[in-house]
Design brief:
By secondary structure, the protein is α+β, with helices and mostly antiparallel strands. About 30% of the residues lie in helices and about 30% in strands. It has one domain (about 1-85): Lrp/AsnC effector binding domain/regulation of amino acid metabolism (RAM) domain (Alpha-Beta Plaits, 2-Layer Sandwich).
């Protein structure tokens, strides 16, 4: 599974509506409003790169109010939960 993070700038008067429309796109698993340089961050999970190429320019960029996107593909995931899960394998009785 490929994970991509899409940093999205929106028109101020369309932020809430754009966020919901993006969240409803197939392949988008989460959308966060945030402070900082971008208005929204969308998380995409897809089985192949071609699907991400369809979702971002083909759907997200066409949402009314989306001004700009910047897509980042994740290579590897690190988390405390992943480490704890790996070390607890086989400990259940």
């Amino acid at each position: 599974m490929i994970t991509a993070f899409v940093l999205i700038q929106t028109a101020a008067d369309r932020l809430t509506e754009a966020a919901q429309e993006i969240a409803d796109i197939d392949g988008v698993t989460e959308v966060y409003s945030c402070a900082g340089d971008v208005d929204l961050i969308a998380v995409i999970r897809a089985s192949e790169h071609e699907r991400i190429a369809e979702i971002v320019p083909g759907a997200i960029n066409k949402v009314d109010g989306v001004v700009d996107t910047d897509t980042h593909i994740a290579f590897r995931s690190y988390s405390k939960q992943d480490s704890e899960d790996a070390f607890s394998i086989g400990l259940e009785s």
